[in-house]
Amino acid sequence: MKMNLIEKILAKHSKYQSVKANDIIDISLDVRAARDFGGANVIKHLKENNLEIADNSKTFFTFDTNPTGSDQKYAVNQQICRKFAREKGFKVFDIDRGIGTHTFIEEGIAYPYTTSVTTDSHANILGAIGAFGQGMGDKDIASAFNKGKIWFKVPESVKIILNGKRPKNVSSKDIILNLLNIFGANELLGYSIEVVGEEVEKLTLDERITISSMATEMGAIIILFTPNEEIIDFCETRSKRKIELIKSDEDAVYKKIYNIDISSFVPMISLPGKPHDTIDILELKRTKIDSAFIGSCTNGRMEDMREISKVLKNKKVAPGVVLKIVPATDEVWIKALNEGLIKIFKDAGALVSNAGCAGCAAGQVGQNGEGEITISTGNRNFPGKQGKGKVFLASPINVVSSAVSGYITNFENIPEKPEVFMQKNSFENPESYKKKNENYEEKITKIEGKVWVIDEDNIDTDMIFHNRYLAITKISEMGQYTFDNLKNYEDFSKKAKKGDIIITKKNFGSGSSRQQAVDCFKALGIQAILAESFGAIYERNAINAAFPILTYKNISKLSIENGEKISLDFENGHLKNLNKNLSIFIEKFSEVQMDIYKNGGLF
Questions:
Q1: Range of the domain at 77
Q2: What residues does 163 pair with on adjacent strands?
Q3: Strands 192-196 and 157-163: what pairing?
Q4: How far apart are CA 23 and CA 7, in angstroms?
Q5: Alpha-carbon distance values, 303 to 4, 306, 324, 330, 333 (Å)
Q6: CA proximity to 394, closest of 415, 373, 417
Q7: In the prediction, which pLDDT does 357 show?
Q8: pLDDT for res 437
Q9: What pLDDT sits at residue 363?
Q10: What are phi and psi of 568, to 5 degrees?
Q11: Do residues 248 and 316 both lie within one domain?
């Protein structure tokens, strides 16, 4: 049977010689990791269920979301993880090491065709080296620590062929922002994406990491690259093993194949609130900025540090602008120090922090305040993700160019003198920018309840359960924070009643891997959520928590209005509007979902 790249990787780690899209299989895991914010919950699940570690040589903690240990709750969780790792004899990449997935590549722990899971929704960054990486919730990771394997549904694949020549001023960040402009946040939802083409073959490791890092923002399972000679050589050196090239079969099956002209790509910028809401950076006319951030798992690499140093050498950050630079790993930090780049950064007036996730995690360097305008190299700019201000996303070269200019611009248009804005100037967005449970009861498969109709796509986990509450581990305390970062639903937890059901639209639960975004609904007594589609990690978290979620294609004929009463049959996929006596069939529970649901959860 002919297979594409994701199918070959997953088949190699299963009991089958070949697999195909939509097969549900157990896959062995070469790397099982938890971060500082999810690690304490993973330990909690292991201890409560009397589970041991399958292989401590493949098990890790990575302290990257709060590498400074500056938040007391994070510091407590980090110490819980340290003590547990000492007891079980496995490695902790502590607060001095930087972002976990990057460290796995540097250390040769992850290499082409390996499999990794971690409580990091950007674990799919490993697609950059032709490896499988996936972010999962703390229940999944606890199970992976214990079994060394996890169930997974083989995703359907698409191929994106980039034709033509890449323009000189188009960075790898611009490539992914252009693709986000084309596909949005849910057109490729749940797919594995292979990117190929003549210019793709030339992409460096750092460039591939940038592109793969934003698969999550496209709603994809992973963006995969077939390793070129440079990647194979790097990974052989780091892993100290011979790596055989594996690539998709010539006649492998893809759901769709897209031919895209890369020569038409331009430097892009994401408008505040939505990573996929991108425009040509030149369309923004001298938008005043208060701060600039360079870092994150998307753009904290050595090539990025070298590129921005060329702009900052003999220049100063514009008056009134704060530039924050955070290398992805300690290796990058030390190289930047040895090459004199740190001095260049400091001479220019930038703040340089120790390696880590930085701006993408609350309490770290890169957060902004209410009313603040930030241009960032991060992968997300969801409301509240990087603070209370507005965040634009762009490439390192254009972020640093803006930092020295005082307003959003590109490298080609840096003024001789930075502009200082004295008047109040705020950004206005024009229309054109467009667990088992202690109260466990026998599980019923038919329910009735009042419905909340939330008519929105792409409701991400920060909107559902904001990252400032991630240190909370008791489910009973989570309900009060449900949707308090979703506009017009900030008081949801006060109005929702036990037994209510939610109906929403596409890509519900996109973004972070946090289990709390599921458990908060359980705490409120919400019975189920229906959506056109769910974020891949969210879907797993809900199923594993025995929280009912179902998908539908079109329910318009039911004319369901907010507050009406509906009935749901999980086993048969039957949905009925009880007020209007109208009914249809939707997607029923899969066998795996029903087994886990009736079991009261994954454990």
A1: 5-264
A2: 261
A3: parallel
A4: 10
A5: 30, 5, 17, 14, 12
A6: 373
A7: 85
A8: 44
A9: 59
A10: -135, 135
A11: no
Taking Cα atoms as reference points, which of 384, 358, 361 lies closest to residue 372? 384
pTM for the model: 0.84
Task: For residue 416, give every residue at least 6 positions away whose Cβ sits within 8 Å of its Cβ, in sequence order, or none.
Answer: none
Q: What is the DSSP string of 183-242?
A: HTTTTTTT-EEEEESHHHHT--HHHHHHHHHTTGGGT-SEEE----HHHHHHHHHHHTS-
| Predicted local confidence at residue 442, as pLDDT | 73
Residue 104's nearest CA partner among 143, 133, 146 is 133
Q: Please give the Cα distance from 63 to 55 (Å, whole number).
A: 20
The answer to whether 255 touches 154, Cβ cutoff 8 Å, is no
Same-domain check for residues 484 and 377: no
User: Which structure tokens are listed for 305?
Assistant: 């540090």
CA distance 600 to 603: 8
Find the radius of gyration of the CA atoms of the chain.
23
Q: Which two tokens stand for residue 268?
A: 């892009």
- Residue 87: partners with Cβ closer than 8 Å, 6 or more residues away: none
395: closest CA among 317, 300, 261?
Answer: 300
The answer to the question of residue 520 being in a domain is: yes
Burial of 261 per CB tally in 10 Å (0-12, 13-18, 19+): exposed
What's the confidence (pLDDT) of residue 202?
96
What is the DSSP-derived secondary structure letter of residue 165? P
Phi/psi at 448 (nearest 5 deg)?
-135, 150
Q: How many CB atoms lie within 10 A of CB 195?
A: 24
Q: Are 219 and 276 in contact (CB under 8 A)?
A: no
CATH code for position 167: 3.30.499.10
Q: Across the 603 residues of the chain, what is the mean pLDDT of every consecutive 10-residue run? A: 95 97 97 91 96 96 81 84 96 93 96 96 95 95 97 97 96 96 94 97 96 94 96 97 93 96 96 91 89 92 96 94 95 97 97 86 76 91 82 95 95 88 56 46 89 96 91 92 95 96 97 94 97 96 97 94 96 96 96 95 92
Cβ atoms 352, 334 nearer than 8 A: no
Same domain, 491 and 521: yes
Residue 420 lies in a domain: no
DSSP letters spanning 37-51? HHHHHHHHHHHHTT-
Q: What angle do CA 544, 548, 552 make, to 5 degrees?
A: 120
Helix segments in 255-301, DSSP class H: none
Q: Does a structural domain hold residue 439?
A: no
Supply the CATH number for residue 539's domain. 3.20.19.10
- The torsion defined by the Cα of 345, 346, 351 and 356, in degrees rounded to 10, comes to 60
Task: Give the largest Cα separation in the chain, rounded.
Answer: 73
Q: Determine the pLDDT at residue 427.
A: 53
- Contact between 584 and 555 (Cβ < 8 Å): yes
Supply the DSSP string of 393-462, one letter for each residue: E--HHHHHHHHHHTBS--GGG--SS-----S-------TT-----TT--PPPSEEEEEEEE---S--BHH
pLDDT for position 429: 55
Q: Is 301 in the same domain as 340?
A: yes
Residue type for 602, please? L
User: pLDDT tens, 456-513?
Assistant: 999 999 999 998 888 888 999 999 999 999 999 999 999 999 999 999 999 999 998 9
